[in-house]
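Lecture notes, part 5. Sequence design as translation. It can be helpful to think of inverse folding as translation between two languages: the language of shapes and the language of residues. The source text, in structure tokens, appears below.
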């Protein structure tokens, strides 16, 4: 059995989608969800599916404890950042070399880096008059959005699209591809 921990900061629709995807899988399961915010939707979404969730403080995130102990207690093999809005901290990165992936809601290397998260990304894409956007799934390293790219998928952006329209198209791509990419990586 491979156990996944998901880090999420907000609504958690990706966390829910990934959890549901693996719910009857004998080899892979979402064992734990961690968040930097206790007042966000991800907790209720995954708790309803039987997955425990924990909230950590900024200090705990930076020092790595008790997060690393929790990850060990749940025998976590792989970490997925799904709508996690902080740069991963060094102790966690060091403990999971090449075992942390992130999804970014744009076609990196465009529209990545500090401050580029959630709706800010879609606003920038529309503001720049891009005719496409998409998703990038990549390994996590010390820099924001700069780790090795694993997978990308794109969608058209129409002149009439608002940032909300682009967000909806990007979410669709995320739901369609993210669980499968995780499954493939864990089978390797
Ligand atoms: C997703 O679109 C994800 O790609 C993005 O936040 C959204 C979270 O939605 N992540 C980032 O911007 C990370 N830099 P969700 O909470 O409904 O899954």
């Amino acid at each position: 059995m491979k156990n996944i921990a998901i880090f999420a900061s907000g609504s958690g629709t990706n966390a829910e989608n990934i959890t549901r995807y693996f719910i009857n899988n004998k080899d892979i399961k979402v064992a734990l969800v961690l968040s930097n915010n206790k007042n966000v939707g991800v907790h209720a979404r995954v708790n309803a599916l039987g997955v425990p969730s924990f909230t950590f403080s900024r200090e705990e995130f930076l020092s790595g404890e008790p997060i690393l102990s929790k990850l060990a207690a749940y025998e976590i093999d792989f970490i997925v950042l799904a709508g996690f809005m902080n740069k991963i901290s060094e102790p966690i990165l060091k403990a999971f070399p090449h075992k942390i992936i992130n999804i970014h809601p744009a076609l990196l290397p465009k529209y990545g880096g500090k401050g580029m998260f959630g709706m800010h990304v879609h606003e920038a894409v529309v503001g720049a008059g891009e005719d496409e956007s998409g998703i990038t799934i990549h390994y996590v390293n010390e820099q924001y959005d700069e780790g090795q790219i694993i997978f990308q998928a794109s969608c058209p952006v129409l002149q009439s699209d608002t940032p909300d329209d682009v967000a909806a198209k990007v979410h669709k791509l995320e739901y369609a591809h993210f669980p499968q990419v995780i499954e493939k990586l864990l089978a390797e």
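The translated text above is only one of many valid answers, since several sequences can fold into similar shapes. Residues 8, 10-14, 82-83, 85, 103-105, 117-118, 121, 170-171, 174 surround glycinamide ribonucleotide (CB under 6 Å).
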